[in-house]
Each structure stands twice: as C-alpha cells, then as structure tokens.
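Give me structure tokens for this 201-residue protein.
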Amino acid sequence: MKFHIRHSVPCQKPKPGGGFTLIEIIVSTGILSLLVVMLTTLGFFTARSFATMGNYMDLDDQSRNAADLLGRDIRNASALLSYTNTSTLESLTFTNATLGQSTVINYYPNAAILVVSQKTGGTTVVQTNLTQCDQWNFALYSRAPNTNSFSTNILFTSTTDATQCKVVDLTWKCSRTIFGAKVNTESVQTAQIVLRNQVQY
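Here you go.
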C-alpha cells in the first residue's frame, strides 16, 4: 500500500491596491490647482474691492476737509497779496488783517500735494491738505460782476490783479493706487469762494 503525501500550499490573499495610478494623480493635481487658483483669484478681488472702497472714502473725506479748510481761510481773508502759477508751483498768499494772520496755499505738481501754511505772529502751522493730487488750479475774479450775464446768472470778471481779487475759483482732482497701480480717481472737485472780508488796498 502506497501512501501519497500532499504538501498543502497556503492560500495567498490578493494584495490590496498599492496607491493611485498616474492618471488619478494627474486629475487630482489638476483639480487641486484649479481650486487654489480660484481661491487666490477670489481673495485678490476681495482685497481689491475693500481697498477700492477704502480709497473712495479717503478721497471723499480728504476733498471735503480741504474744501472746508480752504473755504474758511479764503472767506476770512481780507486780501490776496500775491499768486504764482508755474509748472513747478501754484501758490496763493492771503492776509487776514483782523487776526494778523497770513495764509499761503502751495500746490507742488511734482510731489502731487497741496500744503497750507498759516502764520500768526511768530507761530507757523503747516498742514498737507491734499495728497496724490493730480491736478489743482485756481482762477481769480474781481468784485465787479459781468453785466452781460444777468439774464442767466451772475458771473464775475476774471482778473490778474491780486489786489482786485474778490472771488477765487479752485478745482482739483486726486487719485489713489492699489497694489502700485493707479485705480481710483475722483471726479473734478470745484469750489468758488468769496473773500467776504476783502478790503481795498
């Protein structure tokens, strides 16, 4: 009688998947990259929108403050002493005889700033009223109105004589940058101010 001995071989379980295939990796990377780009773009536009709103608020506040301060100083002035209008400097110099005060308004086109200096006695106060100011101009008018304009509205006659100046017309335009690029520009602001305390010298 013969005996046959069988050697049993243990069953091997199939190996589980060893990771992602190349196609799966490429697709996953593409989707992830797309999500990152979308989130980055959304963050950029959100930051830009907030910066834009902040710039417009700053422009509005600055122009309103400048109009109030310039209007107050010019209205209370008793005379325009002198003015300068060149490519590097636009300047108006007023005096207030009642307060013994002189006010100098200087616009520097190259620096794009408007600076107001007030001197009372031996004290001088210097304040920057407008920054990033791309344009600032003035026009002078005499106290004699233009009689040909009465049918529509009263217009004053322009003058180049500082001693005859009764009305000062100011216009300016400012802008702001975002991420180094000029984005926000306000519309041209204007103010026509009468020297209420003007006296003839």
